[in-house]
Amino acid sequence: MAGDIRELDAWAVGLLNSLSPSGRRVLARQIAGELRREQQARISAQTNPDGTPYEPRKPQMRGKAGRIRRKMFSKLRTTRYLKIDATADSAVVAFTGQVQRIARVHHFGLRDRVERNGPTVKYEARELLGITDRDQETVADLIIKHVAR
Fold first, then answer.
1. Which helix (H) or strand (E) holds 101?
2. 20, pLDDT greater than 60
3. Distance between alpha carbon 121 and the CA centroid of its chain, in Å?
4. Is 16 helix (H, G, I), strand (E, B) or coil?
5. The whole model's pTM is what?
6. What's 42's DSSP letter?
7. Are 18 and 148 in contact (CB under 8 A)?
8. For 136-146, how does the pLDDT look when each residue is reduced to its tens digit (9 = 90+)?
């Protein structure tokens, strides 16, 4: 997939260089906003960028039987924590503050404490952010629409 991003980048450079800096910033904001919506939808669907489902939570020993729990990362995917930043040179979708540490642990499958003085647990890797083929098509469409205006 990384080769595809380089191809998209090489294709877009010529088109983007013909735009003014303010035009590039407007386009970058549109791209970042659309990518954030795509990431939020994918996190809500509990799937990795390659289409595989997230590893399920480990069963809780002391939880009530039949208890319905909310989906993983339901608050993490909100616009309060998943921010966009757009300049004339870049469009960024990233987690902010303390949430960034939590997202990194889950994204890469690292070890972390469950509670402040609780046990250390190895979390399964669940890729929260990533570029899919559909995202690349969306970016290409947004560039074409913006340049065509």
1. helix 97-108
2. yes
3. 24
4. helix
5. 0.83
6. H
7. no
8. 999 989 988 98
